[in-house]
UniProtKB/TrEMBL annotation:
Pfam families: Methyltr_RsmB-F (PF01189), Pre-PUA_NSUN2 (PF25376). This is SAM-dependent MTase RsmB/NOP-type domain-containing protein. It comes from Panicum virgatum (Blackwell switchgrass). Belongs to the class I-like SAM-binding methyltransferase superfamily. RsmB/NOP family. GO terms for cellular component: nucleus. The active site is at residue 233. Signal peptide: none annotated. It is found in: Nucleus. PANTHER family: NCL1 YEAST -RELATED NOL1/NOP2/FMU SUN DOMAIN-CONTAINING (PTHR22808), OS08G0484400 PROTEIN (PTHR22808:SF14). SUPFAM superfamilies: S-adenosyl-L-methionine-dependent methyltransferases (SSF53335). S-adenosyl-L-methionine binds at residues 119, 180. Keywords: Methyltransferase, Nucleus, RNA-binding, S-adenosyl-L-methionine, Transferase, tRNA processing, tRNA-binding. InterPro entries: MeTrfase_RsmB-F_NOP2_cat, MeTrfase_RsmB-F_NOP2_dom, Pre-PUA_NSUN2, RCMT, RCMT_NCL1, RsmB/NOL1/NOP2-like_CS, SAM-dependent_MTases_sf.
Length: 606
């Protein structure tokens, strides 16, 4: 069917109309030379359009900008990897990562891997859940956190000892991290014509610190030996190379920027930049201006030159040319010197209104930023993307970690207390976080995405419903709820307002009934893999993989540090009829029953 369609469209519209992307492994990605509008309107393409729609709905096809598929390819994902997608919505790359972990397993067999997909905004998490539902995976957890404060769920020392000999995780650590940060999005300028009107250099400046903080948190959560991909769909070096330079500077010898020029050789890419201009105006300095001026060690934005007046820098009317190779990634500079030396070509001082008081601490690092990759539209008729691949060589030291996360106040007493952060940095960090969030929501929100969100049928498994749990009766037998009842009630009070806690479903009577009704082999790992929500009257029961189960157990131990908005695969749904709870089975049952296909491939393997 697909080959026939492709052949027909190619004959009619020329070979270039549909062609495989040469750089995507296994010919699994194809480029389509038609806009959405053409596909919808052109009668001749009708059956092909129908085919695309159907295959997209069932999860066989995902339609997305070609270059947006590049970053996950550089993660070199294996089927047992724990992967964190820090800024995941709308989820096209999450979907790709899920495809990768399932690829090498027979359908129905679950990989040992796990994808944790996170986004800051609840509505965008809903969009992510909606878009990944087609994957029908038991190996996904969706969380809702500020990526720069993503919890590590570390067990306190005494717990940790007890866990040592089990293979269970003692904290969150990931083999692979995708850090596809919020950005100005100017790489989409060929498609999003609005961008031409909106773009200004301040957009990148405003996002730079947030991007650094998110990526630093990623490095802290990355296993030694693990890979992290930093990516944006922006061409602005302030959001790209300047961020990478700052990551390398902050993490010292713990992280290296990988040369991946031999990977995906068919992909046309350009080397990262070593010099760029930063417009010395805009919100960046405003962000810092509300920090008391008597505070020492104020961190200056890393996209600016250290400007110690040495060779290699010159200023051009408000622009500072930055040369990373010559000097540093622009840190803790002496502001007096900065003021002295930042004069434009006419000798007029730049930034005379800036009152920073910084210590002089200029590093002269030579970062191999050419190893970053720039994909530009005119090389292979695509959108633009920036990608950097980082490899963790050793753990970050205490100081480096300090800056990567502010502990959630609720987590106090549950995990080991982090070392106290220096006041000035903490204040600066907190102030800028609030500002960054405001900025990000302005820069990132697109009317199109919000419109799509409103039309979504949401299935985010969360509820504000505080009604008491329904009496659980199955096949006329009172369930033996007593044992699990107390813990259920205890867990009902979630620390995350509006998000019901995830509970392991332990009702033996119900589980036995399910096993006998569906003829599931006793050897099939059902017990301990079924979860539900505390206030879910419909009693939706989800199936989770072993990897997800382990993380859930860890999360319970650490006092629910993870705000989980969705997980696993919906497998059974019970409905309350007059006398009993029935588990939905198939269409031969009365009209109030329904079959959940989503979990069938797993059950069939039992
Ligand atoms: C570039 S988009 C990610 C695209 C996504 N990786 C994909 O391929 O579909 C950036 C995402 O980051 C989210 N975001 C913005 N600020 C964030 C933060 N501080 N922490 C986590 N996510 C954030 C936005 O809501 C947005 O969905």
């Amino acid at each position: 069917m697909i080959l026939g369609d492709i052949w027909r469209v190619s004959c009619e519209y020329g070979e270039d109309a549909i062609r495989p992307l040469p750089w995507y492994p296994g010919n699994l990605a194809w480029h389509l030379n038609f806009s959405r509008k053409e596909l919808r309107k052109n009668q001749a393409l009708e059956s092909f359009h129908e085919f695309l729609k159907h295959e997209s709905e069932v999860g066989n096809i995902t339609r997305q900008e070609a270059v947006s598929m590049v970053p996950p390819l550089f993660l070199n994902v294996q089927p047992d990897h724990h992967i964190l997608d820090m800024c995941a919505s709308p989820g096209s790359k999450t979907f790709q990562l899920l495809e990768m972990i399932h690829q090498s397993k027979e359908p129905g067999l679950l990989p040992g891997a796990l994808v944790m997909a996170n986004d800051l905004y609840v509505q965008r998490c809903d969009l992510l859940i909606h878009n990944t539902k087609r994957m029908c995976t038991a190996n996904l957890i969706v969380t809702n956190h500020e990526a720069q404060n993503f919890p590590d769920c570390s067990l306190a020392k005494d717990y940790s000892e007890a866990y040592k000999d089990t293979c269970k995780p003692q904290g969150l650590e990931f083999d692979r991290i995708l850090c596809d940060v919020p950005c100005s999005g100017d790489g989409t300028i060929r498609k999003g014509h609005e961008m031409w009107r909106k773009w200004n250099s301040g957009m990148g400046n405003q996002l730079h610190l947030l991007q650094v903080n998110i990526a630093m948190r990623g490095i802290a959560l990355l296993k030694v030996g693990g890979r992290m991909v930093y990516s944006t769909c922006s061409m602005n070096p302030v959001e790209n190379e300047a961020v990478v330079a700052e990551l390398l500077r902050r993490s010292g010898n713990s992280v290296e920027l990988l040369d991946v020029s031999s990977e995906l050789p068919e992909l046309v890419r350009r080397p990262g930049l070593s010099t760029w201009k930063v417009q010395d105006r805009g919100c960046w300095f405003q962000t810092h201006d509300d920090v008391p001026h008597d505070k020492k060690n104020v961190v200056l934005p890393s996209m600016f030159t250290s400007s110690n007046g040495t060779e290699g820098s010159h200023t051009v009317r408000g622009d500072v040319e930055v040369n990373i190779d010559d000097r540093s990634s622009l840190r803790n500079c002496n502001i007096e010197e900065t003021s002295k030396n930042n004069h434009d070509m006419d000798g007029l001082p730049i930034n005379t209104n800036k009152k920073f008081d910084c210590t002089s601490n200029i590093l002269n690092s030579k970062f191999p930023l050419h190893r970053c990759m720039r994909i530009v539209p005119h090389d292979q008729n695509s959108g633009a993307f920036f990608i950097a691949v980082l490899h963790k060589l050793s753990p970050l030291n205490g100081c480096q970690i300090q800056g990567t996360k502010i502990q959630h106040p609720l987590a106090k007493g549950i995990t080991a207390q982090p070392q106290k952060e220096p006041e000035s940095e903490t204040r600066l960090y907190k102030t800028s976080l609030t500002r960054q969030q405001n900025i990000v929501s302005k820069v990132v929100d697109s009317a199109e995405v919000l419109g799509r969100q409103q039309n979504l049928s949401m299935d985010n498994q969360t509820s504000n419903d505080n009604s008491t749990e329904v009496e659980m009766v199955f096949n006329g037998v009172e369930s033996s709820r007593a044992e699990s009842g107390d813990s259920m009630r205890l867990q009902k009070q979630s620390r995350w307002k509006g998000v019901d806690p995830v509970l392991f479903f332990k009702d033996e009577v119900v589980i036995k009934s399910i096993i006998s009704f569906f003829g599931i082999k006793e050897s099939f790992p059902l017990r301990g893999h079924l979860v539900t929500r505390s206030t879910d009257n419909a009693r939706r029961i989800y199936y989770v993989s072993k990897s997800v189960k382990n993380i859930l157990e860890l999360n319970t131990e650490v006092g629910e540090q993870l705000k989980i908005v969705s997980l696993g695969i919906k497998m059974f749904v019970s409905i309350k009829c007059s006398k009993c709870m029935m588990f939905f089975t198939d269409s031969r049952f009365p009209s109030n029953t329904q079959f959940f296909f989503t979990g069938i491939h797993i059950l069939l393997k039992s």
